Batch of 3 targets.
Target 1
Amino acid sequence: MAMTFRVEISARGHGRTSDWEASKIAAWRRELFAEDQNVIDAFIWQDKDGMGFDIQTYSGEELVGFAHVFARVGQLDDSAFLMGCLGSVMTAKTHQGKGVGTTTVRTAGDVILKNLGADLGVLVCKSALVPFYERLDWRQMSTPVVIEQPEGQIEWPHESMVLLGKNPQSVPKKLDLCGLPF
Ligand SMILES: CC(C)(COP(=O)(O)OP(=O)(O)OC[C@H]1O[C@@H](n2cnc3c(N)ncnc32)[C@H](O)[C@@H]1OP(=O)(O)O)[C@@H](O)C(=O)NCCC(=O)NCCS
């Protein structure tokens, strides 16, 4: 039988995240992204302090999954559009492979398209995770994604995926994230 999880969504900095949970999330970040540290350290990332929404997934009373979303105006095939930016997707190591990440990312998609009313969801990831997100209706970008770095605009050299809302209907040709990656 599939396990059911409870998901809480709260504005970062105004929410229900206890100090204990915040330190748990910080520890996950160190542990779960350790193998990607070289890639992470190669870029300057968006500082998400006090910004956007925390998505927290619980098994009973235990926090087992996390993600963050925020809204930003991007440039899509040369017109402005509202992006729902998804990042920090994590499941506690001992709870992986049970559907927690699926629940967290599905909820994040709903927040992006329904609550934020964004035109498009956007995330960046490593290639190994493309099949995971594809199963959750995200589509891989095959054309350039532009990010900002201190030296100027550059092309994001790893994977990027989009969650299509009603408008646009097709994967964009060119996407400018109009800021730092997240
Ligand atoms: C990606 C992640 C959030 C998935 O969480 P989860 O709760 O295990 O997700 P689910 O149980 O819903 O789905 C698991 C499936 O995701 C896929 N998957 C997860 N991590 C993967 C990886 N590193 N490489 C390839 N596939 C992966 C697998 O298909 C897996 O299925 P399996 O358990 O049968 O092998 C979790 O693995 C994680 O925290 N990873 C480290 C942090 C990270 O890379 N986050 C993504 C940033 S873009």
Target 2
Amino acid sequence: MAGKNTDPTHIDISLSQGVDITWGDGHKSHYPLDHLRQNCPCASCRSEEHSSQPSSQPASALPMFKPTARLTNAETVGRYAVRFLWTDGHSTGLYSFDHLREICPCPECAPSG
Ligand SMILES: [Zn+2]
Ligand SMILES: [Zn+2]
């Protein structure tokens, strides 16, 4: 851990494709919308995650029926975060760049195993 490389040098937000970020250390991340929505850092989403609903996500043979996360708007907040407005009206999640770097879905960043 030498220094802080979580300052994006380039951010590309597509309301239909997701978010691409190039980081200060040269790392590139692509965040599909589903992934962003699932990792919404706001309090209500986090408590949902912790509620004890047994098997709310059954292994389905028809993954296409899963509701797809969509954006109606996205905006950067200062120099430290991005805020997304989802089509279901949800907009309280403030995705700090620190958080985004943490949830980078690439094989390099994902915890192995
Ligand atoms: Zn949320
Ligand atoms: Zn990564």
Target 3
Amino acid sequence: MNDLEPLTDRQRRELEYHREHAKQRSALLDKPVNFNIALNNNRRWWNAHWAMYTYLRNKDIKGKNVLVVGCGFGDDALYLAKYGAHVKAFDLSPESLAIARTLAEKENLAIEFKEMPAEKLEYENNYFDFVVARDILHHVDIPKSINEILRVSKPGAIFCFNEVYSHSITNRIRYSDFVDKWLYPKMVNFVYGGNKPYITEDERKLSEQDIKIITASMAKPEIEKYFNLFIGRLISDNYLFLVKLDRLLLYLLSPVAKFLGARILIAGPLNKTAQTSEILETPTSPT
Ligand SMILES: C[S@@+](CC[C@H](N)C(=O)[O-])C[C@H]1O[C@@H](n2cnc3c(N)ncnc32)[C@H](O)[C@@H]1O
């Protein structure tokens, strides 16, 4: 980590939360890593994570320089390295990185893991062919992180992100008194399948305004897909039939899916000539 720049309050809170989170996940080290998502040709069209890999596999990612943003326990770094990419990955939490490093060693995968914040990367300019961000942009300062992603990417590099999302209209319903004070407390146990919700103090689902800022760094995205109409909101993802039905419904509702989905997958080439000053000055959604 760059000792010269102290962490912001938000980064420090995220770090503390994830240090504790990592301590409870050491069991990850006992299980073999399942590489199906990257290697299996039978694809799970209903699953956003799998859809991201379907896109990346079609992009000839083997042998390319790939950056995994906020890699946590290293899942995506491991899968992409196994698929044949040259992977570098970073995160704020040394405990999460320790798990990721051990798994990579066990699997004999050469991945460079580093501890740093997304808002200030230590990588050189114009290095990466691909940048992959999953469930991380909603934890960070978006304009600063996007600006850094643009800087370290080669011209025409592919950016792929897969994040929790809520259109401001849907969000207003979610935080109405009826849902927030009455419905949500009754549903929360069921929706999270009895697990404690994994939500940090500062994380915010991406809004359409955040998506605008992120996609301002890109040429026209090649894919924009929405997932989770009811899944994760009213129903847990334990019921495969309902998960498939949910994805099918959102597919049929494509013209209005951006108002309804709770997860977004967008991918396409970055535009190095994007006006970084504009990205930095655009206000993100209120926190
Ligand atoms: C929800 S987890 C996602 C981890 C991983 N991308 C995945 O999908 O498994 C969020 C991760 O972001 C990291 N994080 C939070 N704020 C960060 C920041 N400003 N810079 C880098 N990593 C950050 C946390 O330590 C945590 O590992």
